[in-house]
Each structure stands twice: as C-alpha cells, then as structure tokens.
Specification:
binds adenosine-5'-diphosphate; globular; binds magnesium ion
C-alpha cells in the first residue's frame, strides 16, 4: 500500500432493480439500472461529494460501497483489497473501517436506547475491548462531537436534530473507522445547524484524517465540504474532478445545468427541516 493509493475505489458498480410496468396488477416487470458502471476513488483524508438530482443513484451507490446492499456488478477496493464479497470476519473488519452516518438522525437512532448504549453498539458488534472503559470512551466521543457528556444517559428524543446527528457521528467514530459515508447527513437539518455539523466533519477530518463520502443534493453544502466531486445523472457518472474544477470549470452540459439551477424547494427535505427546527427551539428552552 502506498501513500498515493486511494483509500477506497469503486470500480464499475452496477445495481439493477425491477419495476412493475403498466401498474402493479399487470404483472409486467422491467429491469432498470439504478447504478450503471459507476467508478470513483476516495483519497486519504479527503472528502468526495457525490451529487446529482433525486433518483440519480447516489444512495444506491453508497449502499453498495458500504456493503449494505450487494452489487450486481463491479467491485469495491479498500486499501487495495477487494472487499466486494467478503463475509464473516472479513465483512466484520470492513465494518470497523467503514461507518455510515444516515440522513435522518431520529430514525437511525433506537429511541428506546440511551446515548451511551447507542454509541457503544458498534463496539459490541465488533467485540472490541476498550482499554480505558466504555464510560470514558463515550464521554470522550461526546465531547469530540460537541455534546455534553453528562447527557449520556438520555434518550434520542431529548435531543435536537443537530444534537441527534452528533450522536450518530459519535457512534460512527467509536470503532475508529477510516471512511465515513454520509448520505444526506445534513440535509434534514436547519441551515445554521447544517453549517455547524459541516464544521464538525471538517475538524474531525483535520484531526484524525478520516476519508469521507459525502452525498448531497445541495450544492451549496457540497461547496463547503468537498475536496473532490462526482456528478451523477440517471445512474451514471457524468463528470468528476476537484471541487474547483467542477464548480469553476464544469465541462459537461449536465453539470453546468445542475450548477445553474435555481435552488428548488424540495418539499420532502423542507418538511423534515421544519420538524428539526421545532426540536432545535424546544432543546434551547
Ligand atoms: N430498493 C429499491 N427497489 C427498487 N428501486 C429502487 C430501490 N432503491 C432505489 N430505487 C430506484 O433507484 C433509483 C435511484 O435511487 P437512489 O439511489 O435512492 O437515488 P438518489 O439517492 O440519488 O436520490 C431511483 O429511480 C429509485 O426509485
Ligand atoms: Mg438518496
């Protein structure tokens, strides 16, 4: 393994889904490629943003890379090793290296578990020992992500949206991964809270050298965090390059139109943001 070698490579990933055509009752099915020959690399301590309109295949790509969904073609390499089909101990090791931060903090945290139990769940799965003890580890992680460590016995519902997302980040960091996959991890958050969570990702990366795959439909957010950008459309990579190449000198018409698009109000995200805004206010009072 050389320092110049990327941490992760996605090579020619393919995912096919079948859809019902002519209505569910017609029984006619058609296969379509939600992800069609997608390749990109993630460098060490770099953030690669995957952007594209809704339905372009971003989440499906992320799920295959994270081994949450099997790929129908192509491969994933971590540290130069093919991790596409590993099972048992190999898959477990992969899960200690690659952690996911999900889009909706509240649906990805078990509401019946306290924060300390949530944060240590991946360690329990890994059977990892904690030299200084779990209590100390949870405290340290909560401090690192900007939460009050005295609140480790609380339940997710007692936190705001931004705080809940910090719990999800602390959980992802517990096993000391090399790569974080963030699928719309700030999209449901209120804009000022988005900026705080983005700054948290940046400082964690500066301190510990995490690589990050950051999936987002919001280009303003991507501009703040990405080193590299992969543009997807209809399951395929349209163009990829450094952030400045993509934002300042896009070569493809699709990328240009994506950049030129007036930010549209996405009703789904707006609704989630409103809910989190209310929680944010409730947490402050
Ligand atoms: N489990 C699934 N079964 C069938 N179709 C799916 C499934 N997951 C996603 N799709 C379809 O695949 C396409 C890409 O979806 P997705 O990866 O979620 O896009 P994005 O994250 O870019 O919005 C969409 O047309 C979506 O409807
Ligand atoms: Mg998605």
């Amino acid at each position: 393994m050389s320092a110049g070698e990327p941490l992760l490579e996605a090579r020619n990933l393919v995912k096919e889904f079948t859809t019902n055509t002519g209505g569910v009752l017609s029984g006619k099915k058609r296969a379509f490629r939600a992800v069609d020959d997608v390749s990109f690399a993630v460098g060490r301590a770099r953030t690669v943003a995957v952007v594209g309109e809704s339905g372009s295949g971003k989440s499906t790509t992320a799920r295959m890379v994270a081994r949450l969904m099997p790929a129908d073609g192509g491969s994933v390499l971590l540290d130069g090793e093919d991790v596409t089909h590993g099972t048992g101990a190999a898959l477990k090791h992969f899960r200690s290296q690659v952690q996911v931060v999900f889009q909706d903090p509240f649906s990805s945290l078990n509401p019946r578990h306290t924060v300390d139990r949530i944060i240590t769940a991946p360690l329990d799965y890994q059977g990892m020992g904690v030299p200084g003890g779990k209590r100390q580890l949870v405290k340290g992680l909560m401090e690192r992500v900007g939460l009050n460590p005295d609140h480790s016995g609380r339940y997710p519902s007692q936190f705001s949206g931004g705080q809940a997302q910090r719990i999800g980040i602390a959980r992802a960091l517990a096993v000391k991964p090399k790569l974080l996959i963030c699928d719309e991890a700030v999209s449901a958050l209120d804009v000022s809270v988005q900026a705080q969570v983005i700054n948290l990702f940046k400082s964690l990366q500066a301190e510990d050298g995490y690589s990050i795959i950051f999936i987002a439909h919001d280009l303003a957010v991507v501009r703040q965090i990405a080193h590299d950008v992969v543009v997807m459309n209809r399951g395929a990579v349209v163009e990829s390059g450094t952030r400045d190449e993509i934002f300042d000198n896009p070569t493809q018409p699709y990328t240009r139109s994506l950049l030129a698009a007036i930010p549209t109000i996405n009703p789904e995200w707006e609704a989630r943001r409103r809910v989190n805004e209310q929680r944010e206010r409730a947490a402050l009072t």
